[in-house]
Specification:
Elements: E1 13-16, H1 22-33, E2 37-42, H2 46-58, E3 62-67, H3 73-87, E4 92-95, H4 111-136, E5 145-150, H5 154-157, H6 164-183, E6 189-196, H7 203-206, H8 212-216, H9 228-239, E7 250-253
Parallel strand pairs: 1-2, 1-4, 2-3, 4-5, 5-6, 6-7
Bound molecules: NADP nicotinamide-adenine-dinucleotide phosphate (NAP).
Length: 257
């Protein structure tokens, strides 16, 4: 009788966009510790992405890094094809890559800036969700999965006098998350959203105020900024089986703000 070799899938596979730094890097490490084989996507910072991979490998985990600009459709398609080839079928997507531009009032915003923000912070999430759904949905022969979109407390607060354009991109992510969660609920996919508040990452330097957390912390009920690892914990929970009955939900990680 012929022996049929059955290849068991060893680990669940997760993709973290913008996984080279900040919240994405912390999330990639926590997911690897939870047993996922993790793909760390990044834009420019090859060294930071490789460091996250090395940190995970040193802990006995599985990780690869793939450079791709998730604001560009062809790059997203390439990212997912390379991921398919290197790690296998996707189980979890963390849409996290995002940008912040220097603080500005509405009068000084330009179409170029607004379009850049919406391309990177919104279009990319739609494109990555599309590629994930094509792989996860039972409608397309998949076995289900989970998606977490990283939005922001800015979607609720509006970020007046700082960046209402950025805040509006995050409002779009809240709506994407709610709509998609309902669209794919019967197809084995849970979609949830995490809304961080003021988190200690490089992003505030990009906004033109590296010490922003020091300025605003007195207005945060918990009286401090958050750590990337505290957001990563919320993301990891929502992807996990412990959150099996949670979809279309919003988890604010914002110190009470
Ligand atoms: P961060 O430290 O500035 O890191 C941004 C990450 O996104 C980097 O890994 C960067 O890659 C990647 N990235 C940027 N544009 C990309 C693109 N077009 N394609 C692929 N990767 C791209 O940011 P963070 O503070 O961790 O923020 C992560 C997410 O949390 C964002 O969606 C942000 O809006 C959200 N958030 C942050 C805060 C906060 O206070 N920090 C609050 C609320 C929400 P490279 O390393 O290659 O540049």
């Amino acid at each position: 009788m012929a022996t049929v070799a059955k290849v068991a899938k060893v680990a669940k596979v997760a993709l973290v966009t913008g996984g080279s730094r900040g919240i994405g890097a912390a999330t990639a490490k926590q997911l690897a510790a939870a047993g996922y084989a993790v793909c760390i996507n990044y834009l420019h910072n090859h060294a930071a992405a490789q460091q996250v991979v090395q940190d995970i490998l040193a802990q006995g985990g599985q990780a690869i890094a793939i450079q791709a600009d998730v604001a560009i459709e062809s790059e997203v398609q390439r990212l997912f094809i390379e991921l398919d080839q290197q790690l296998g079928r996707l189980d979890a997507l963390v849409n996290n890559a995002g940008i912040l531009l220097p603080q500005s009032r509405l009068e000084d915003l330009t179409a170029e800036r607004i379009n850049r923000l919406f391309n990177t912070n919104v279009c990319s999430y739609f494109l990555c969700c599309r590629e994930a759904v094509l792989r996860m949905s039972t409608r397309h022969g998949g076995q289900g999965g989970a998606i977490v979109n990283v939005s922001s407390a800015a979607s609720r607060l509006g970020s007046p006098n700082e960046y209402i354009d950025y805040a509006a991109t995050k409002g779009a992510i809240d709506t994407l998350s709610k709509g998609l969660s309902l669209e794919v609920a019967e197809e084995g996919i849970r979609v949830n959203c995490v809304r961080p508040g003021f988190i200690d990452t490089d992003m505030h330097t990009d906004g033109g105020e590296p010490d922003r957390l020091q300025r605003v912390k007195a207005n945060i009920p918990l009286k401090r900024g958050g750590e990337a690892s505290e957001v990563a914990a919320a993301i990891s929970f929502l992807l996990s089986d412990a959150a099996s009955y949670i979809t279309g939900s919003f988890l604010d990680v914002a110190g009470g703000r």
